[in-house]
Each structure stands twice: as C-alpha cells, then as structure tokens.
Design a protein that fits this description.
Elements lengths: L1 E6 L5 H9 L4 E7 L3 E3 L4 E3 L2 H8 L5 E2 L6 H10 L3 E5 L7 H4 L6 E5 L11 H7 L4 E8 L9 E8 L6 H25 L31 H10 L6 E5 L2 E11 L12 E3 L5 E4 L4 E9 L5 E2 H8 L9
Parallel strand pairs: 1-2, 1-6, 2-5, 6-7
Antiparallel strand pairs: 3-4, 7-8, 8-9, 10-11, 11-14, 12-13, 13-14, 14-15
Helix pairs in contact: 1-6, 5-7
C-alpha cells in the first residue's frame, strides 16, 4: 500500500515510525512544515517529523500546507492509496481528500466525537475526564467530523500531564493506525458516522487560560497545572514578577482560620503550598522569570518567604 504521511509534531513521529517499520505499508512521501525559528538565537529548526523522516531515509517535502504549490503537487504526483495525517495543524483541502483511493486518515487524540479540535489532550485534563483515547477517522471537510474507523481507550492517570498523556496516546495511536490501514485495504473495516449531537469541542488553548486563579478549588488548579505541563506552564505572579508553576499536588488544608486564597506557606519538610478557594496546592516545581525550572523547595528557600506573602 502506497502511503503519504503528513504531520509536524513530536506526537506525529510514532505513527511515521510504525508505518515505516510495518513492512507492507510503503511511506512514499512525507510532508511537513518548513523549518521555523526556535530556541536561543532563533535558529531555523526542522519539525520533529522532518528529523524523523531523514533518520528513516526519507527526504521530506517541507512546505506550508498542501492546499496549493509543492505540497499539493507532491500528493498528485505520488497518487497514493492512502494519506495519513497526524498532528498537522492545517486543514486538508477537498482537492487532497479526493486523491487517495482509500481516503485520507487522521489520528485524533480523543474518543470522538468528544473533544473535536486542536487541544483534545489538554481539554480532557482540564475538564477532569477519567478516560480518553485515540480515534482513526476518515477526514472530510468538517472539523473532526468524519466517520470513525477505529478507537482505542486510555485511562487518564491522576498524575498525568499533557506531555505524558500525549506521548502514551501517540504510541497507542501508531499501532492503531497501522492495523486500521491494513483492515481498510482488506475491506474488513467499515466507517461509522459520528453522533454529532454528542460532540464537544477542544479549541486551541488561549494564553489567558494559563493564569491560575487561586480562588478556585485546589483540584481545579491542579488540573490546570497538569494541562499546561510541561510547556508553556501554568502562570502566576510572585512579588510582581511572572512565575510558572510546572508541577503541583493537591492537598487538604486542616485547621481553623484558613488564610486568604493565594497565600504561600511552607510545610515542615520545606515544601511550599498555596491556599486555594478550597484546599491547597503544594508547589513541586516552578520556573521564575528568566530562570531554569527548579523544585518548589529550592524556590521557597531562595525567595525567603515572608509571612502573609501571596501568589497572583
């Protein structure tokens, strides 16, 4: 089976690797974004998919989308049996959807129709979902509205952050994509329409959503920290300067006369915790403005916290 792979993100890479290693699915072409400025010095950096493709002996087509130009021409030239799209970030136009004989398959990081959109992993954690998964669907012109070929469920662990959960889903989805492509080629899988009335949406996370409101319950704050980890990190302020909270744990707050939300206190073991609207949040790892990430205890000792100081 002749396959074109389209993706950008590190979470795209496991599927590309699985297709390449399958033996019966021939990755004829890889399409990904051009290098972007990144890191200190804004050096032009290839996508994770471009790096992986070269490692696998495939020279990628690095282009801005597949609607026109080099990307679209490459798809037409190959005339694939299937196009596989994973964490691409661009809409695939009808002109491309109609090219492959078996269709254009997308690996989506949720159990569709729940969490259609750009940020399904983060939204599942933010909302406190206990389970999620991956879906392989046939793309159509809508936003994640195509019929589903296969799903696989995954539990969300209490300590999962977006990074750890996304990596597990990427590995789970890679195997599912390979088996689904084979079944599609053999005619042993049938597309199942989604229940559009049950759909929920996962729009891209906005910068303002990073900000912690310490008046909220501790479990809600903990989910926000996990949803924005490992990057860009949940945000607050300390002494008027930005502070990222990268890892935290929810705890009870015993005793009478609970301090105001946002007040920082230090436990007997030196760990700082912050009073929330209900309960408290132990700060396990932070990144002060312009500094590397560090443990909450190291930050608290260096800050020399004064009685009554607050975050936010």
């Amino acid at each position: 089976m002749r396959v074109i792979f389209v993706g950008n993100d590190p979470w795209s890479v496991p599927t590309l690797e699985a297709l390449s290693a399958s033996g019966d699915l021939d990755v004829e072409l890889v399409i990904t974004n051009p290098p972007r400025p990144a890191g200190r010095g804004s050096r032009l950096t290839p996508t994770a998919v471009a790096d992986a493709a070269r490692r696998l002996g495939i020279e990628p087509v690095e282009t801005e989308g597949v609607r026109t130009g080099e990307g679209f021409e490459a798809v037409e030239r190959i005339d694939p049996d299937a196009v596989v799209v994973v964490a691409y970030g661009h809409l695939v136009p009808p002109e491309v959807l109609d090219v492959p004989r078996l269709g254009t398959l997308n690996l989506h990081f949720s159990l569709l129709p729940r969490w259609r959109g750009a940020a399904p992993v983060q939204r599942a954690i933010l909302e406190g979902d206990e389970r999620t998964g991956v879906s392989v669907m046939l793309l159509d012109e809508g936003l994640d509205t195509g019929p589903v070929l296969a799903r696989r469920e995954e539990q969300i662990r209490p300590d999962d952050e977006s990074g750890s959960l996304g990596e597990r889903l990427a590995a789970l989805g890679a195997d599912l994509m390979v088996s689904t492509l084979r079944a599609l080629g053999e005619g042993t899988v049938a597309p199942a329409p989604q229940d559009h009335a049950a759909a929920t949406y996962a729009p891209k996370l906005e910068p303002r959503e990073r900000t912690i409101d310490w008046r909220h319950p501790a479990d809600s704050i903990g989910r926000r920290v996990r949803a924005f980890a490992p990057a860009p990190g949940a945000a607050t302020t300390f002494r008027g300067r930005p502070l990222k909270v990268l890892r935290a744990a929810v705890r009870d707050l015993d005793g009478e006369g609970v301090p105001p939300a946002g007040e920082v206190q230090v436990d007997v073991d030196g760990s700082p915790f912050v009073v929330a609207g209900s309960g408290a949040v132990t700060v396990l790892e932070v990144a002060p403005a312009g500094r590397a990430r560090m443990s909450g205890g190291d930050w608290a000792r260096g800050a020399r916290l004064e009685r009554g100081e607050r975050l936010g």
